[in-house]
Amino acid sequence: MNDARLRAEDVTLAYDKRVVAEHLDVQIADGSFTVIVGPNACGKSTLLKSLARVLKPQSGAVYLDGQAIASYPSKQVAKQLGMLPQSPIVPGGIVVEELVARGRFAHQRLLKQWSPEDEAAVTEAMRLTEVSDLADRFVDELSGGQRQRVWLAMALAQQTPILLLDEPTTFLDLSHQFEVLDLCAELHEQGRTIVAVLHDLNHACRYATELIVMKAGKVIAQGAPAEVMTAQQVEDVFAMPCRVIDDPETGTPMVVPADRHRRRGARTPEAARA
What is the reported pTM? Predict the structure, then answer.
């Protein structure tokens, strides 16, 4: 991929001395909607943190526009990358509109503080995420789903060409899950590069233009959903027998888990030795 503005080369990631992922080579094609999938604790969120410069690689490097991302000033990175973390910490005593406005930090300068452009960006981000009516509510009083949409609004307010989302549908009911993913799809169609960690394989296949499949700290596969999401791949990575059929609505791959008896049989010692 020659058009990869964001990439990781031979990256090893660790928390203190505990290595989570080793020798990762990942390219995020500019203009793609890339979704990272894999079992729990396989390194998905850790990879996303390294791409966002939240976590420094133990070795290797992440590059943005051909330059090591670690070499950029923080504000410059914040103008290019917006990040929605998995479990953001809510500042005490802050209302929704104030939190969303923090997404404009990178656009502030010493001699140019709040501007009409900032106001418009915050208003639009809150409208898109349907939190405008919560503007004066304290964030720590909101439900988990409401908070998630507020944090997404803050990320959108940054107006970055690349948006990194770590499990953006967490805490959301089914309707709001699809609303958030539809919004991401619309942003992608408008030219933004989206990178998201998702747990739901069918959501991933429906919305992604590119999938990165991880297992045990390794990238197992990367490519279009139709190429990557096979029944054998799902069983190898998730230890779950299944069928992969065409989604009747979109034609994208749809994972249908096997009957519980067959799944239970696949976990027996006899099946494991087969």
Answer: 0.89
Taking the domains of the chain in order of start, what are their residue ranges?
4-225, 230-274
HEC sequence for the chain: CCCEEEEEEEEEEEECCEEEEEEEEEEEECCCEEEEECCCCCCHHHHHHHHCCCCCCCEEEEEECCEEHHHCCHHHHHHHEEEECCCCCCCCCCEHHHHHHHHHHHHCECCECCCHHHHHHHHHHHHHCCCHHHCCCEHHHCCHHHHHHHHHHHHHHCCCCEEEEECCCCCCCHHHHHHHHHHHHHHHHCCCEEEEECCCHHHHHHHCCEEEEEECCEEEEEECHHHHCCHHHHHHHHCCCEEEEECCCCCCEEEEECCHHHHHHHCCHHHHHC
> CATH for 4-225?
3.40.50.300
- For the chain, what is the mean pLDDT? 91
